Amino acid sequence: LKVTSTVGALTGSTNGDVWEPNDLFSQASSISLDADINGALSSKNDVDIFSIILTQSGLLDIEFTPPSGSLSDAFFIEILNKDLYTLDTFETGSLVNRVVNIEESGEYYIRINAGSYSGGNYVLKASKKLSETIVGNEKEDNDQFFSANKFCKTV
Fold first, then answer.
1. Distances (CA, A) of 89 to 37, 43, 86
2. Could you give the CA distance from residue 119 to residue 130 in angstroms, rounded to a whole number?
3. What whole-number distance in Å separates Cα of residue 38 and Cα of residue 47?
4. Are the C-beta atoms of residues 76 and 117 closer than 8 Å to each other?
5. How far apart are CA 147 and CA 72, in angstroms?
6. Distance, CA of 140 to CA of 61 (rounded, Å)
7. In the prediction, which pLDDT does 28 show?
């Protein structure tokens, strides 16, 4: 799935959100690993896009904390590679950690959309996790579908 979008180009007031404007990939706010990012969506049509540079492959841990009292589908979050292909998506209204397998160094994007918008500030944190080789090419954490080890059959 390749994403091209101008959603959020015309949004409500974003006064007080130091990350704005960041509604388009060309406006993505650069963030650092392990930093708590306090953001807010100003309306149901607002979008926040963050970029992060990763210098090596491995596991990227995305921690998202929505405002308290958010509905279960309050936020829709996507993790995309430099070519804007979606690596993972999830919908949440509660604290969530998602681990994404990053296969190569480069720029990656985290896009936050309003689901059932409820207002308030969220906290986003991206951290690099060490992957440990167990046997052959198996790497941990791989106990969920989204963190499964990829392999190809050789003939």
1. 19, 20, 7
2. 34
3. 14
4. no
5. 22
6. 13
7. 95
